[in-house]
Amino acid sequence: MNDIKILNKAADNIRILAASMVEKAKSGHPGGAMGGADFINILYSEFLEYDPKNPRWEGRDRFFMDPGHMSPMLYSTLALVGKYSMDDLKQFRQWGSVTPGHPELDVDRGVENTSGPLGQGHAYAVGAAIAAKFLKARLGDVMNQTIYAFISDGGIQEEVSQGAGRIAGHLGLDNLVMFYDSNGIQLSTKVAEVNEENVAAKYEAWGWKVITIEGNNPEAIRKSLKEAKAEKAKPTLIIGKTIMGKGAVTKEGKSFENQVSTHGQPLGDAGASLEKTIENLGGNPQDPFVIFPEVKELYAKREAELLKLVEEKKSQKNKWAQENPELAKKLEVWFSGVAPKVDWSKIEQKPNAATRAASATVLATLAQQVENMIVSSADLSNSDKTDGFLKHTHALTRGDFSGAFLQAGVAEFTMACLCLGMSLHGGVIPACATFFVFSDYMKPVIRVAALMEQPVKFIWTHDAFRVGEDGPTHEPVEQEAQIRLMEKLQNHKGHNSMLVLRPADVQEATVAWKLAMENTHTPTGLIFSRQNIKDIPSQGKRYEEALQSEKGAYIVQEDKNFEVILLASGSEVSTLVEGAELLRKDGIKSRIVSVPSEGLFRSQSKEYQESILPKDKKKFGLTAGLPVNLLGLVGDSGKIWGLESFGYSAPASILDQKLGFTPENVYKQVKEYLG
Questions:
Q1: What is the share, in percent, of the chain residues with pLDDT greater than 90?
Q2: What angle do CA 154, 374, 394 make, to 5 degrees?
Q3: CA-CA 20 to 30 A from 514: which of 30, 432, 507, 591?
Q4: Are the C-beta atoms of residues 500 and 597 closer than 8 Å to each other?
Q5: For residues 77 and 13, what is the distance between their CA atoms, to the nearest angstrom?
Q6: How far is CA 619 from CA 574, 576, 596, 622, in A?
Q7: Closest CA to 526 of 502, 507, 561, 550
Q8: Residue 157: CB partners within 8 Å, gap ≥ 6?
Q9: Rg of the chain's alpha carbons, rounded to an integer?
């Protein structure tokens, strides 16, 4: 057991480094970092189990940070561990630095998640805890890790905390321990000015074990963590009453703790004195970027303990692998992140069906062939057709994680966070589903999934105004344009940050799922229809022709010496096929192009793009969303028929007629366009 004086010294070392980083950058949040230093120091020096030599060890504990603004605390602690240098800390928030203002996923340096949008980080931890339980049910105690989370007042207030708290308690995630840094201060006010709820009672009502402690007391922190680790039925919330800006003083040496101003600006700007604060904490103001000798010794001791622990775990794993060679192979393959092998050509689709039904058919196959896949639905499994997966497994429940379906309840934002957390944990392939219009609730997660390059599969059904009688509240119009922007946004590796696919018939739906499962580097959005769609006419095997979807756009039909290109994605392609027949009778020849993914198409060679959409040909686009969906393909000189307003409540067939999504209107619009 470490000496309390040494632990206090290490926490003060973290405080000095954190405050100095922010002061040097002239930007950042020192107060919370100074208050939370005691907890993170105890966690890393005594509890968190990881491999100092292999940060990607699949059996490690995970630490998920929710308040990204407290990054100076995390970086400083990881510097004590040896993951960051003093020069790294000095470059906080600078161009090209490995210490950005809010932490970005960097497992090799010990950063398990990108954080910043408050509330999401701890919800990822809940997802990771679910993944760990799921894997333990299949692989055994080799997956017996603890998931730790750190949350602040802002994260507690964000609405996603309700969904995460409810689901974690409902599932009895006893492998989840969360520290709530309750300092009573937020960016612009004191917490009491905006919130007076009983947080402990709230979490207890959700089924959590709650421990309230003095959050800057190392003995109390240690005791609470031991108690949390011993809990075998519930997730644990440790409410730590901490001191914002702990140790901060003015030039005169007077306490400057518990001040709102220290939350979001350097101590000097907030009204405190960095120099006097460093002195007060036992450091040298002239040379603050230093690890104290006794702190080096503390963390060297912990490293030795960890190396011994990991050696024992490896020995146990090797014994397990010898006794369970098939399970050992699964663990290796699952954590490699490689795409599963599926014989896509053998999936038999019912012709002329809705693409959501086609998705159900694929999901039924995946449920039987991909053992490490988890599918979730926001209380819509029988409507978004993820029940195709559910029929071959069962829901995850408290004490039984042998199933592979997460019934998330009505909680799209939370569900998306949980799936992202599962992906971050590794070893599982998560997918989640809802109506396309409710992708609005998921946008914050989609964005961070794209930033972290995590291959979560987002399943969206009821893709257009043809939701019909449900009316404009349920009819997506602008959603496709918003999601497709992610195809145009590049990630840090210079690739499209997301793959978005809207298939034109049941065979394209199979190919869309194939592409989604093979996409192991970014999130994928799959947009499926509610209503039946006529299959695209085929010269041979339709599935083989649909494989051309892999290039994002391809020719599905054309007349010799065509004079106009008709293009669309999803349901509208079959409407173009019927419209082309009317045009053909009038002597107008056309080429029809299906474009399930403009992002994929623009990733092809210029030669291929020109072969599909020659610049010298007139182009007409049809989209059940905003015309801008096709503007990059049709161009300013072309013509697009789309929606310029919200939808209306009426049967789908009536809406098609009223809104102009008919073969007859395609004929009319193209005739007018060609003059």
A1: 100
A2: 115
A3: 591
A4: yes
A5: 9
A6: 17, 12, 17, 10
A7: 502
A8: 118, 119, 194, 195
A9: 28
Query: What does the pLDDT look like over 534-572, one tens digit per residue?
Result: 999 998 899 999 999 999 999 999 999 999 999 999 999
Ranges of H-type helices in 96-176: 120-139, 153-157, 160-171
SS3 21: helix
Written as six digits, the tokens of 664 are 């007859």
Picking from 305, 177, 167, 169, the residue whose alpha carbon sits closest to that of residue 229 is: 177
Cα separation values, 644 from 389, 626, 628, 647, 649, Å: 36, 6, 10, 9, 16
To the query of whether residue 672 is one of the catalytic residues in this protein, the response is no
- Length of the chain (residues): 675
% of the chain residues with pLDDT over 70: 100
Buried-state track 449-472, b at ≥16 Cβ within 10 A, e below 16: bbbbbbbbbbbbbbbbbbbbeeee
Pairing mode, strands 499-501 and 457-461: unpaired
The DSSP bridge pattern shows strands 209-214 and 176-182 to be unpaired
Is pTM, for the whole model, over 0.90?
Answer: yes
Going by C-alpha positions, the residue among 486, 467, 458, 432 that lies closest to residue 624 is 467
Catalytic position from the list 46, 158, 257, 412? 412
| Own/partner pairs, 219-228, CB within 8 angstroms, 24+ separation | 219/4, 221/38, 221/39, 221/42, 222/1, 222/42, 222/46, 225/42, 225/43, 225/46, 225/47, 225/177, 228/177
Query: What single string gives the DSSP state of each residue in 62-88?
Result: EEEES-GGGHHHHHHHHHHHTSS-HHH
User: Which helix (H) or strand (E) covers residue 34, if one does?
Assistant: helix 30-42
Instruction: Kindly provide the residue ranges of all beta strands, DSSP E only, lying in 310-367, ordered along the sequence.
Output: none
Task: For the beta carbon of residue 539, count every other beta carbon within 10 angstroms.
Answer: 9
